[in-house]
Amino acid sequence: MNIDFSKATFRDFENIPEYDIAQRAEIFYDFLGYMESNGHMNYRLKNNSGCSPIMNVDINSTQKDYVSFVSNDYLGFTQHPKVKQAAIEGIQKYGSGAGASPLIGGHFVYHDNLEIKISSFFGRKQEEAVVFTTGYTANSATLQILLQKEDLAIIDMAVHASVYEGCVFTNTKTFPHNSLESLEHILKTSENRFRTKLVIIDGVYSQDGDVSHLKEIYALVKKYNAYLMVDDAHGVGILGNTGRGALEEAEMLDKVDIITGTFSKTFANVGGYVITDKKIAAFIRFQSRQQIFSATAPPSTMGIIKAIDLIDEEPEWREKLWWNINYLKKGLNNIGLDTGITRSAIVPVKIGDPNITGDLGKLLIERGIYTNPILYPAVARKDARIRMAVMATHEKEHLDKTLNAFEDINKFLQIAKKK
Asked: Where are the chain's structural domains?
């Protein structure tokens, strides 16, 4: 089988029917070599420093400092002294690990405190929160146990991969991103055909940075007697008057049936959470395979509790983040670059052509700017882009260097689309 590497994506190598394991691995290894040879291998680069606006990265065995837009540490809390100290104190008091799954001895007081903290952060009660070791499994493990062959998941096409994995045991229907008409059609035609209908959307979407039509979707969900689950991993800490995310902005914190999210972005650690009715939460705790068979989060989790507090204690970080977002977007748009419809800390530069996007990523690296080229299957084949995550700790000089790089590269690649 011949695969044109110049047009191939990672997805093309997932399953080649006539190739066994070794053959698939071999041709994929050759593809990685091709990407590296043309400077498009901006993946799994070795970072020598922590999440920050300036990161030291090893590229082709050369270590160099770059202005970085690859971290979802939006408020910069991974480097906040109070967050670090809380994590250190957790380890000093309880050790480096939990040693068991939460069901059989791995549920500690710091897990209990975290469930109290995150549920109260969203205005809910303690018994309504369940914490997981990653945001990915908060989605996948929860959905796998809640939805079975008698049920239906109705999914916005742009949701995270963890949602799709969580729905492998149930029936699924997808609707075009944020399409209310398509969603209503599915809800209407699915009436009385399934035991449970669960609509699953994001608050803020991870590639375009846009926000769900939450109020309108909620109205449709209730009209057709379905449930609504919202993953607001990219909205919490950024949107809303007090940083409670897209749900706060839409005045829906107390209405959504299931809220999920991650501790790995704004909350500067690792882990995930599910907030729902206390009886459903209890069902998840005792039925989810990840809760039963996987060790739970380590004591450094105590850093998350402090990060949650800082959302209210130090709102200046969110203010600085928004200044940075607006400044960078305005500068990119003035060059003529397409940043889409983002309303968050995710700022895409939409190119379309995957090869040009790869070249752009390479040229940005050469100019000291570390970004993520995003290609199919993460986005549509003709919707490739450079994805940048803005941080509160970026300084104006970092943003100016980035804008100068884009302006310089545009002279060669002619990537500007609008004025």
From this structure: 30-68+315-413, 78-313
Give the CA angle between residues 307, 311, 317 to the nearest 5°.
Answer: 100
Fold of 78-313: Aspartate Aminotransferase; domain 2 (3.40.640)
Per-residue tokens: 80: 């906040």
Residue 1's pLDDT is: 67
Instruction: State the Cα–Cα distance between residues 107 and 131, nearest whole angstrom.
Output: 10
> What number does CATH give the domain 30-68+315-413?
3.90.1150.10
What is the tens place of the pLDDT at every residue in 246-268? 999 999 999 999 999 999 999 99
Task: Express each pLDDT in 208-235 by its tens digit.
Answer: 999 999 999 999 999 999 999 999 999 9
Check whether 417 has a pLDDT greater than 90: no
- Long-range contacts of residues 412-417, Cβ cutoff 8 Å, at least 24 apart: 412/363, 413/356, 413/359, 413/360, 413/363, 415/337, 415/349, 415/351, 415/356, 415/360, 416/335, 416/336, 416/337, 417/336, 417/337, 417/338, 417/350
SS3 content of the chain, % helix, strand, coil (to 5): 45, 15, 40
